[in-house]
Amino acid sequence: MKKFKKIYIEITNICNLSCSFCPKHKRPLHTMSADEFEQIMAEVHHMGENFYLHLMGEPLSHPQLCEILDICNRYNVKTNITTNGTLLDKVGHHVLEKQIRNVSISLHSFEANSLNISLQKYLDDIAAFCKKALGRKTVVELRLWNMSRESLLDKDSLNFKIVQFLDSALQPDCNIWQQIETTFFSMEKNRKKNFRLKENIFLGMSERFEWPCIENSPNEICKGFCYGLRNQIAILADGTVVPCCLDSDGNIPLGNIFDTKLQDVIQNDRSRAIYDGFTNQKAVEPLCQSCGYMKKYFLNR
Fold first, then answer.
1. What is the tens place of the pLDDT at every residue in 181-209?
2. Could you tell me if 226 and 297 are in contact, meaning their C-beta atoms sit under 8 angstroms apart?
3. If you write DSSP's letter for every residue of 133-166 in order, what string do you get?
4. Helical residues (DSSP H) of 45-118, grouped into ranges
5. pLDDT value at position 227?
6. Is the CB of residue 202 less than 8 Å from the CB of residue 194?
7. Helix (H, G, I), strand (E, B) or coil at 6
8. Is 283 helix (H, G, I), strand (E, B) or coil?
9. Gap between the Cα atoms of 60 and 62, Å rounded
10. DSSP percent split of the chain into helix, strand, coil, nearest 5
């Protein structure tokens, strides 16, 4: 039985924000019911090491979030959530009570929107969540995936103000500025890096990446490598199975888990062609041919 390091289950493709860095999918808006989620989890819980409750959409906006987290706990899976952080003041306590493995908060969401709340209110709510998380089993990753060497050095930049706030509000166990200097400013371009601020609270940094876009595909088989269908797989809100978490529009539908067992989906002709293609360092799907991650993985092999 195939076991993946990561299985993404998109519990909703609806978001309460419209981030400039996020692709706008063209799929019908849909929220997976808790019953549908349990049907999926009953089948795949033994097929993944870590489960992520997102692809597109804001998972904390799901009206049955508590039921879904209870299902995750019932199947004893390692559950991970990525959120823009705007709903933590309303449902963050539920997330901590369910003791999920990891919560990643995209702090770069604030600058990518025109929000009707202040930066202070946004960060205060996130800091309050972090303080409640201290000493618990849940790891919190504060993401700044829009880092720039130039902008962080500018004291008027938003990232500078965010780091300054974290330094003051969380009182990190490390010198946060020195850590940034020795990690982010010395790391390779587009490489993710994080370090511990306090106990189970981390700051994750990366420069912004470009989502693959099928319109930009050369539409010809090219050299490349990807872990899609090898280490990870994703299930969209309507049950459509796609190879990886970057297929935001479902451009590579491999089947639907509500109609076909996942084990059969990953063994069908299209899935095998993708897998065998990357085994031979070739990208056969147009979406994959436009993916910067695919090219990076190929160069790093």
1. 887 776 555 566 889 999 999 999 888 77
2. yes
3. HTTSS-EEEEEETT--HHHHHSTTSHHHHHHHHH
4. 65-74, 88-97
5. 92
6. yes
7. strand
8. strand
9. 5
10. 40, 20, 45
HEC per residue, 193-232: EEEEEECCEEEEECCCCCCCCHHHCCCCCEECCCCECCCE
Lookup: tokens for 272 = 């095998």
For the cut 90, the answer to whether the pLDDT of residue 239 exceeds it is yes
Helix (H) / strand (E) element for 44: namely: helix 34-44
Q: How far apart are CA 45 and CA 38, in angstroms?
A: 10
What mean pLDDT is predicted for residues 68-84?
97
In angstroms, the CA 220 to CA 164 distance is 47
What six digits make up the tokens of 140?
Answer: 């919190």
As a dihedral over the C-alpha atoms of residue 203, residue 106, residue 56, residue 3, rounded to 10 degrees, the angle is: 10
Place of tokens 């062609």: 273
Q: Whole-angstrom Cα distance, residue 147 to residue 185?
A: 10
Instruction: Check if the beta carbon of residue 291 is closer than 8 Å to that of residue 246.
Output: yes
Write down the residue that tokens 């500018």 correspond to.
154
Amino acid code (one letter) for 200: N
pTM greater than 0.70 (yes/no):
yes
State the number of CA atoms in the 13 A half-sphere of 154 facing the CB: 9
User: Could you give the angle at the alpha carbon of 12 between the alpha carbons of 9 and 17, nearest 5°?
Assistant: 125
Separation of alpha carbons 50 and 27, rounded Å: 26
